[in-house]
Amino acid sequence: xxxCAGRVDEGSGGEPAYKVGFADIYTLYxxxxxxxxxxxxxxxxxxxxxxxxxxxxxxxxxxxSGGLDSILALKLIALQGVRVTALHMRLxxxxxxxxxxxxxxxxxxxxxxxxxYRPEDEFCRILAEPVYGYGKNANPCIDCKLMLMKxxxxxxxxxxxxxxxxxxxxGERPMSQRRQAMDILERESGLTGWLLRPLSAKLLPPTKxxxxxMVDREALKDFRGRSRKxxxxxxxxxxxxxxxxxxxxxxxxxxxxxxxxxxxLEHDGCTVEGMRLLPHxxxxxxxxxxxxxxxxxxxxNDALLSVAAPGDLILDARVSSPVGxxxxxxxxxxxxxxxxxxxxxxxxxxxxxGPRVAxxxxxxxxxxxxxxxxxxxxxxxxxLDPDLRRMMA
Length: 393
Ligand code: SF4
Known about the structure:
Layout: E1 25-28, E2 35-37, H1 48-51, E3 59-63, H2 68-79, E4 83-89, H3 99-109, E5 113-117, H4 121-128, H5 141-159, E6 163-165, H6 179-188, E7 195-196, H7 208-211, H8 229-238, H9 255-268, H10 272-277, E8 282-285, E9 291-294, H11 298-307, E10 313-316, E11 324-327, H12 335-348, E12 357-364, E13 370-378, H13 381-384, H14 386-392
Parallel strand pairs: 1-8, 3-4, 3-6, 4-5, 6-7
Antiparallel strand pairs: 1-2, 8-9, 9-11, 10-11, 10-12, 12-13
Helix pairs in contact: 2-8, 5-6
The structure holds iron/sulfur cluster.
């Protein structure tokens, strides 16, 4: 077969048209090359007493992830009579699932306000070029936290809050919770003196909220390191019984997801639409540069349809078939990529008797409608080439 990936529907024979690497995101090169897999401002009030509410209570903004540390920090500070607004961040690839439960939890812990923050282009810039680099995977934690802390500082002004606090524990995380990184975060966010870490406060210099008597330093903690035992004991003491396990958390710390992120950055640059696609389905990089995401099951199919963007092509063989979302960074998808994508959709669909399978194609418009395009009749990819078949297994 020739090296032209656009003719994958012509059948296979002789030299394999593609070769296969490993999973996660599959990069498909023409046969001279291959399917190599790559898995394919605020100003803080001049005087907090001026800004205290009518009950003369100080007010604070907490960076609330919903993890155990931020839960305990919120409870400790709320117990001191501080009015807390919980600030929760969701990155562009994360949906809103569970946000309502987190708001309930924050309010149960004593928060009297809850704000959801969804950085988009701002986060893309950070992900593409983090000033402080990445952690072990695609997690730009220092830049990410700095962005969140700057947002919290802006909220201080809007809410008339007195300080910001977090659930950070000294030495718990290798990147952003080293003392040096914590100092950078405090200084660069403009929160010097007004950023309290209640769980490690006794190991750190006193902050202004402690010095001015808004918070009792004696009731704060001296936790350090990666062990969760002190936090679990405190949770017992405070009557907090339900909290997430440490295994969950940010997808950017996952090695497989991280490879998808770096592949996106390399081929398409960082776009919000590109990030939204990343968590769902199997991903393929096609010879003409297009990206194909294929649902593995109904849940994936629904998720892919929900994050498809105007200009994306939606492919569906309508026989227990995955939904495919196909896009090219420059707009029009090359015909060779469209043909190959249709073959892959057909290859993962319920097997059909005839030699070719009909794949329906539609383009998502700006108005959110589907513009139906000519249907394709293709040979399923698993019948085209043994390497493709092995890759799809
Ligand atoms: S783990 Fe994820 S959300 Fe948390 S600071 Fe790092 S990049 Fe940001």
